[in-house]
Amino acid sequence: LVPAAVGSLSAAFPELAEQQGHVQAVIADEEAAFSSMLSRGIKEFNSRAEAIKQAGGGGFDGASAFFLYDSMGFPLDLTELMAREAGLAVDVSGFQAAMEEQKARSAAAAAASKGDGALLTLGPEQTARLADEGVAFTDDSFKFDLGADAGATVRAIYGAGGFVDAAEAGGGETLGVVLDRSSFFSQAGGQVPDVGSLVEAGGGATFRVSSVQSFGGYVLHVGSLESGSLSAGDSVACNVDGERRRRISKSHTLTHAINLALHQVLGEGVSQKGSLVDDSKARFDFSHGKAMSAAECERVEALVRTMVAEALPVHIQTVPLDKALAINNLRAVFGERYPDPVRVVSIGPEVPALLAAPESDEWEQYSIELCGGTHIPSTSDFGSFALVEESAVAKGVRRVVGVAGELAAEAEAAGAALQSRLPPLTAAAA
């Protein structure tokens, strides 16, 4: 079917002809995976069905049906069909209950990734109220400069019960504070939010910020009031945890370096599928059909270390979107909606040079991405680098985790210690 489909569509999509072999390989792999899943699922179903019959039961329980679906990819309708053939009835309501429990666990995990930021959200009703009251969107342009003067005014205070005019310390309630401007980075693009404090200008109140989220243009600083009282209209200073921010920025720049190295080692089929950037690691998910070999991991690690040794400067400039997209070797996340103008982050060449000769082949050797995150000034700030994980996330999606600085040195030391144990272990096994 693939050659026929390519023949009929290649006029409109010429890339199909170039990728025909890859498409056929992916389909063949999917067919083999489905066949394997089907065989394993049938075996598991037969085992459970036999156990039910021996126990004198007449129904295939919902928990077992959900296990087949969730852990083995076995469709519910196929389970029902096989159950009827075996003289059993599937507990569909039990299956749906197990499905809802799984959804709840998934939602809880997603909320946990946001920390306290998951406790408060501004929905359409709340953002509409702020707009109706004349509260302007938060100006967070100061977030890229830790040294910027970030004096701000409290425009709104939000709690579990809704908006309040003022709050007192001591209640232990999680609150959200909306400011007219902020130097805090809100969670976005895989980068975790800043933490720190808001200190009332007179020193009478301290609000501990544990998470920062953005809702429709309003930046919500989530946390708790540690001392004093805070009211709408108060002036506060934004105190971002600078050391933590610098570690996060290092991890974010590291994902860009890893992205480039993966393309250089694995080829153009690699595309970003997700990332997590925090103060301890750079986690990068990407499309790739199989596990990376040890040699490929070593090459990626060596390429990033070369970038560290070269001390490449990191240049950031906001440019019109169409001009940015014209730059050769520019990386952008497929399906992502970028603002216009957009920030270009280049490790190596200056952005004006990219714009002056956008089609130059020279840019193939550099990391150039559209990005709204924070970054370090130079790759030398990594100190050192180690690739500590390569694993599967989903079908056709792999994950690598890299660390820099002291964590990289610790990983290298742990690896060396393990390596030193191999000869004795090998000798003992012999």
What does this structure look like?
With 430 residues, this protein is an alpha+beta fold. The chain contains 12 helices and 19 strands. The chain has helices spanning 2-9, 15-18, 20-54, 62-72, 76-85, 92-114, 124-132, 242-266, 294-310, 321-325, 351-356, 405-429; strands at residues 59-60, 89-90, 151-159, 162-164, 166-168, 175-179, 196-200, 206-215, 218-227, 229-231, 235-240, 272-277, 282-287, 314-319, 330-331, 342-347, 367-370, 385-394, 397-404. The strands form 5 sheets. A 6-stranded antiparallel barrel has the order 3-6-9-8-7-11. A hairpin with a 2-residue loop joins strand 18 and strand 19 (397-404). Helix 3 runs antiparallel to helix 4 (62-72), helix 4 (62-72) crosses helix 6 and helix 8 (242-266) crosses helix 9. The longest helix is centred in the first third of the chain and has 35 residues, at 20-54. The radius of gyration is 27 Å and the shape is globular. It starts with a helix and ends with a helix. The model has no long low-confidence stretch (mean pLDDT 90).
